[in-house]
Design brief:
52% of the residues lie in helices and 7% in strands. Helix 2 packs across helix 3 and helix 3 crosses helix 4. The protein has a three-stranded antiparallel β-sheet. It contains six helices and three strands; from the N terminus they run H-H-E-H-H-E-E-H-H. It has two domains: 102 residues, Winged helix-like DNA-binding domain superfamily/Winged helix DNA-binding domain (Arc Repressor Mutant, subunit A); 50 residues, no CATH class.
């Protein structure tokens, strides 16, 4: 999570370059084929206002097209252009060997457990950062993962593991 924040902090401010957040948005759009700013914001973990601004820039660059929804004229649907699809495919081709090298030593089960842990941590930190409720009404979840230093035991709550008191 810190690495993602650092990547976002190094955003490019050059109009001809694509930022990490914009790539995230393009990859999210590729997964949806077509989506509203709200759907894309949820997928890319960005605010709808940020997504709308990014989509405008990406449209100017010829990477996305935007059109009003036939079902609800208030909603603008976005999709990748051929150029946008090619950019995502090129980026995927460049990144795939790096992903394999970084994660190759882990089996599928380990990767699934790691993904669950990361999702749980993301939910926990999202709950902590919700500043729109007064502190007295805020419900902060207790982390269900208990790490036992020096015990060699995995975190409790991991699949197939028992929790020790």
């Amino acid at each position: 999570m810190g690495a993602v924040r650092r990547l976002r902090g190094r955003e490019t401010h050059h109009p001809e370059q694509i930022s990490f957040a914009q790539y995230t948005l393009l990859f999210s759009l590729a997964g949806l084929c077509e989506g509203s700013a709200r759907e894309l914001a949820e997928q890319a973990d960005l605010s709808p206002a940020t997504v709308a601004q990014m989509l405008e820039s990406l449209e100017v660059q010829g990477l996305v097209t935007r059109a009003r929804s036939d079902q609800d004229r208030r909603v603008v649907m976005s999709s990748l252009t051929e150029r946008g699809e090619q950019l995502v495919a090129d980026r995927h081709t460049r990144m795939e060997p790096r992903w394999r090298a970084a994660l190759g030593e882990f089996d599928d089960e380990e990767l699934l457990v790691a993904a669950r842990v990361l999702e749980r941590l993301a939910d926990y930190f999202d709950a902590l950062s919700e500043a729109d409720e007064p502190a007295s009404n805020r419900q902060v979840p207790s982390p269900e993962l208990v790490f036992k230093p020096n015990s060699g035991d995995p975190p409790s709550g991991a699949p197939g593991k028992t929790t020790h008191p």
